[in-house]
Specification:
42% of the residues lie in helices and 14% in strands. With 527 residues, the chain is an alpha/beta fold. Bound molecules: adenosine-5'-diphosphate and zinc ion. It catalyses: Couples ATP hydrolysis with the unwinding of duplex DNA by translocating in the 3'-5' direction.
Length: 527
Amino acid sequence: MTATAAPTPQQVLERVFGYPAFRGEQQQIIDHVVGGGDALVLMPTGGGKSLCYQIPALVRRGVGVVISPLIALMKDQVDALDAVGVRAVFLNSTQGPDERREVERALLAGEVDMLYMAPERVTVPSTAELLDRLDVALFAIDEAHCVSQWGHDFRPDYLALSMLHERWPTVPRIALTATATAATAREIEQRLQLGEARRFVASFDRPNIQYRIEPKNQPVQQLLQLIRTEHPGDAGIVYCLSRASVEKTAQQLADHGIAALPYHAGLDARVRANHQSRFLREEGIVMVATIAFGMGIDKPDVRFVAHLDLPKSVEGYYQETGRAGRDGLPSTAWLAYGLQDVVQQRQMIDRSEGDGAHKRRMSQLLDAMLALCETVECRRVQLLAYFGQQSERCGNCDTCLAPPESWDGTIPAQKLLSTVVRLERERRQRYGAGQIIDILLGKRTPRVEQLGHADLATFGIGGDLSDQDWRGVVRQLLAQGLLAVHGDGYGTLVITEASAEVLGGKREVRLRREVARPTRSSKRSAP
Ligand code: ADP
Ligand code: ZN
């Protein structure tokens, strides 16, 4: 790009990026920033946020400064811009002094259209002094939700970005994120001093993604079934909670002939970079990863995102599943979750550092995720409602395709809750789900014998349901707040205030019948 005569946004779109038309609100956003206004852009992953700051950076005089936490991706982003003739550079901790000096020289010589840098660089005095000497076209703050202390991606360095406005008050700022609850948006505005910014909120619906959530029985077998019947040879991402389960799952998939690679923060940096680039460049790689993987990854043809463990929040779930189907073609978001997930997440919250308010907030985030898992309504309606958007039944999620039956679970709930109560009152003891279910089923295990649990009045009264059915009952009661995990760190169960209404016969309990989930009839058919 030459800086002589300013081209229009439409001209840049066509000539530089090779696209005929803007998408959604891109044009309005770009016009607003070109005109010098601040903007807060809430747009789902794949919505086209990058052009919203890249084009104004090219249209306005000076260099566009992009602040991004994704150091690992900066080189790729800069290379991609270079390839279309945009003069882009980056400043980050991976560079040596020579390389940095060359970048500074080019910047001062006016040879640069866009500068990418990590948030921690901006506050370094030498960087700020460098920016003082440049004509800055705009500041783009990517992944702006990282400023939210309540959020799942908090980065302390983002808090310092309020200095942008203080030090360079006339430079327009555009903050962008794919996380869009009203609370996060308010927090971004407040912490980044974007009170005057215009807010642009795109629809969060991703109609080509089919959302499915099913009970977890044999997760790897369930996943293999999904891959073989619906996504053979497709690229996908499988999220697991721990590094150990990432490694194990990747190995198991590989043993079954799936091109699976592990990715987590504990792997050697070179291995990680290699796996990431293979995932991006080769076809049909299944990346098994912790949530350390994926932010900023631009791979349009990820056909499925699978979760083998329960995400901590709907925000996280939405963002992770949003990496499927950026190209608009049918894709699957599949989650398997079980009783153990609920217990484990509750324990993690109890053990986490942070004060009571923090734990309550984490609990609320988890409750919303559980409500999405247990809903008998359209998943998409519930998901979008969480982000403040109303919608109609979608016809392309598991509950729309095969509406789950619900059944009157009051009596099983009473049997279970009264077992918990009796153990607590008569024995002054608490137990986890396994022992309570053994009692209900009347199993004379060594532990039952030793503890004398066969003498309890509820021993053996639950033989009408199977072990797995009971686990489903416990899970759903936990999700409905009719049962709770005690904060002792052992995953023991306790009753709640609401349990008393059930035990007293004042409250009916509806449970979701766990049915086999539908599979899509033909792999590429339209939703
Ligand atoms: P986000 O950052 O919101 O996740 P990107 O900016 O990476 O999304 O854009 C997602 C994809 O859509 C990219 O491949 C991008 O080139 C493409 N894209 C963005 N805007 C347009 C447009 N107006 N026309 C065609 N393709 C576009
Ligand atoms: Zn639906």
